[in-house]
Design brief:
By secondary structure, this protein is mostly helical. 81% of the residues lie in helices and 0% in strands. Helix 1 packs across helix 3 and helix 3 packs antiparallel against helix 4.
């Protein structure tokens, strides 16, 4: 039950962070948004160090650094994906991809899905097709570029979660600190090399920083959940985060969900629920 609640909290934090990050990337180049979000995340994790402890062993540093590289890619790809939109389509696609890889790793490590999981996996793949295709002349149909970005973002998120899970369980928040330090360095280096292409638009500082803080909280809750439960189950529960993103997109941006997309979103919800039940 503790792992379930932690994973649900992680899901909620991720959903809110993604929405704010996507909005921020609409106001300025995505790297300008990430330049604010990543250091804000690092600041939160450094503040948590005295309370939760950190052991910087070789395993914690190595897996944390790997998660940081994946996190930098996830930040940029995800925020760019959500900036292109529509959020209520691309966010679930990213979530399903980000759930499938950890499930596979969990199975390889000896975890068992059971009958519910065996039904949920193909249903999740069908949901990706339905949600991506859209329906009707006026539907919010994503472009091919947006779909590719969503798939890449999902894969990067999955790798980040897998790498965090592999870190020693007694390392405290060390993997998070190392990972965020690496992702911040990668982001700042990329921004420096592309400075002339970033444009003159100022980033939404408060919105971007809040997204980074929420992302840090989500990472912490996921790490604690994965340490007390199975990776496959925790990952798919965490993958429920598009629910928050979609609801915010509907209420704030008035994005519509059409019938075919609604079926896909419903299938995605059922698939994730079945995987969680297992």
């Amino acid at each position: 039950m503790i792992a379930l609640l932690l994973a649900l909290g992680s899901s909620l934090a991720y959903g809110c962070a993604d929405f704010l990050g996507g909005l921020g990337a609409r106001k300025a180049h995505v790297l300008r948004t990430v330049m604010i979000a990543a250091p804000a995340s690092l600041a939160v994790e450094l503040l948590l160090w005295p309370f939760l402890g950190a052991t910087f062993s070789a395993g914690a540093v190595a897996w944390g650094a790997a998660s940081g590289v994946a996190s930098a890619a996830a930040f940029a790809l995800l925020y760019r994906t959500l900036a292109i939109g529509p959020m209520n389509v691309l966010s679930p696609v990213t979530a399903l991809v980000s759930a499938m890889l950890p499930v596979g790793v969990g199975l390889l490590q000896g975890e068992h899905l059971g009958m519910a999981g065996l039904i949920g996996l193909p249903l999740a793949l069908a949901a990706v097709v339905l949600v991506s295709a859209g329906h009707g002349a006026g539907s919010a149909r994503p472009s091919r570029t947006a779909l590719l970005l969503a798939l890449g973002a999902g894969a990067a998120i999955a790798l980040q979660l897998i790498f965090l899970h592999q870190a020693p369980s007694d390392s405290g928040v060390a993997p998070l600190i190392v990972g965020r330090a690496v992702s911040s360095a990668v982001t700042l280096a990329a921004a420096g090399m592309m400075y002339r292409k970033l444009g003159s638009e100022k980033p939404a500082y408060a919105m971007s920083a809040t997204a980074g803080v929420l992302d840090s909280v989500a990472n912490l809750l996921f790490l604690l959940a994965a340490r007390s439960g199975d990776l496959a189950v925790v990952a798919v529960i965490t993958a429920l985060y598009p629910a928050g993103t979609v609801l915010l997109a509907r209420s704030v941006l008035a994005e519509r969900i059409y019938r075919g997309q609604l079926v896909g979103l419903g299938a995605a919800a059922v698939a994730v629920s079945l995987l969680a039940l297992t």
